[in-house]
């Protein structure tokens, strides 16, 4: 069955933050856009902590006030470590650019639905419960998409351009056999929402807390309604040791880390504990004459710096320029595509350096005693705030921070090398521990 008119300008696969954003921008320009989303909104999604530099994008989309209404203000990140007596709070207001002092913690079912309805209000046609099954490219003609709805009916549509925003399913990357797992990084997360988790009073109530542990690290993300998202990110070698249910394993992991056990003393899960694994990958292609990959559909590295939604929205904004250039058959298309790919890779690269070293002892030492020599602290805070697309002069202070890190690692070579080799071993060990995860409920 064909849907609506035979051919449209753009079909977006997936109505998550990336898909809804690009659809809103293109529909606003008068393009005929359809968004095909397999799971109807509102729906659970992990990834609830936003970054300050995402807020101008939400303002541009016209949804900032709505997000503020459902969000909890996050002024900073608190760092906890079992090896340090006191925690450290890093405030975004102390970054190089002091004009973005806070972000929001959001329940993703609410946040994603706001963005999705917004693209519909801008004129995009949204189809929920429609799962794309195949995309066929032809040399000269339009792209053909085949999808199936929840009652098993097949939909066929022709479009001039296709945007893959299918998230970690990485639909096109998988179909084109271009999805690659990250050989440098490998971990999994076990998480749920809880009531009764410790919260600071006043301005610090909405901070994200990141706590290192011997098994990986934890996040604590407070919501406006008093509940809290808590997740344990663990090494594959540790996950392989799991014996009981995911829930009992989660609590066992919390108990192994005294500062977390303290914060969770009175906590109770309000949803089932679930797990997700093998989440670090990228695709070896990002765009073609009739398609682009945006957000997680292109790559995802790690949740530790809460950069996923920020990178997804930025790639949607740059991606919209590529789609426009392609639809206009502009002579600048090649240059626009190049700039899109460069900026997406730059964002991912900025976070990757920090992500790969986050659990190194030298890194922890630097973060637990932040110093602002040569504006290093301000520059690191700028990265944490999402200022990664060249707006602030971070290059020199970040270079100095990296040098300092390597000096610290060289001063204590044994513990840093040991941790490095352990992580490398984990990065190459996928099969057995993904089996371990699938014994519980995965997300
Ligand atoms: C454990 C964990 C914790 C995280 N924490 C954070 C955090 O605190 N902050 C943060 O910013 N990011 C976080 N992230 C990352 C964040 O969740 C993602 O980067 C973000 O959701 C990417 O948005 P997206 O629109 O690209 O993909 P998604 O949000 O995944 O949206 C993709 C959409 O496509 C739909 N879809 C998939 N396949 C098809 C198909 N075949 N047909 C139709 N529809 C389809 C899906 O149903 C989905 O709605 C975390 C990730 C993980 C794994």
Give the overall shape.
globular
Average pLDDT reading: 92
* Class of secondary structure makeup: alpha+beta
CATH architecture of the largest domain: 3-Layer(bba) Sandwich
- CATH topology name of the largest domain, in short, is FAD/NAD(P)-binding domain
Helical amount: 25-40%
Number of domains: 2
Percent range for β-strand residues: 15-25%
Please give the number of β-strands. 21
Separate helix tally: 15
How would a crystallographer describe the biggest sheet?
A: 8 strands, mixed
Query: Low-confidence spans: pLDDT under 50, at least 5 residues?
Result: none
Estimated radius of gyration: 22 Å
- CATH homolog superfamily of the largest domain: FAD/NAD(P)-binding domain
Could you explain the architecture of this structure?
With 443 residues, this protein is an alpha+beta fold. It folds into 2 domains: 2-71 and 107-182 and 283-350, FAD/NAD(P)-binding domain (3-Layer(bba) Sandwich); 73-105 and 187-277 and 359-443, D-Amino Acid Oxidase, Chain A, domain 2 (2-Layer Sandwich), CATH 3.30.9. It has helices at 17-28, 55-61, 64-70, 108-121, 171-175, 236-239, 246-255, 258-263, 308-327, 333-357, 361-368, 376-384, 395-411, 413-427, 431-438; strands at 2-13, 33-37, 72-74, 76-80, 88-91, 103-105, 125-128, 130-136, 143-149, 154-164, 179-181, 188-195, 208-213, 216-222, 228-234, 268-269, 274-277, 281-283, 287-288, 291-293, 299-300. Strands 1, 2, 7, 8, 9, 10, 19 and 20 form an 8-stranded mixed beta sheet that branches. Strands 4, 5, 12, 13, 14, 15, 16 and 17 form an 8-stranded mixed beta sheet that branches. Helix 11 crosses helix 13 and helix 12 packs across helix 13. The longest helix has 25 residues, at 333-357. The radius of gyration is 22 Å and the shape is globular. The chain starts with a strand and ends in a 5-residue tail after the last helix. Residues 13-19, 36-39, 45-49, 131-132, 165-169, 171, 189, 231, 276, 279, 295-297, 300, 303, 306-310, 312 line the site of flavin-adenine dinucleotide.
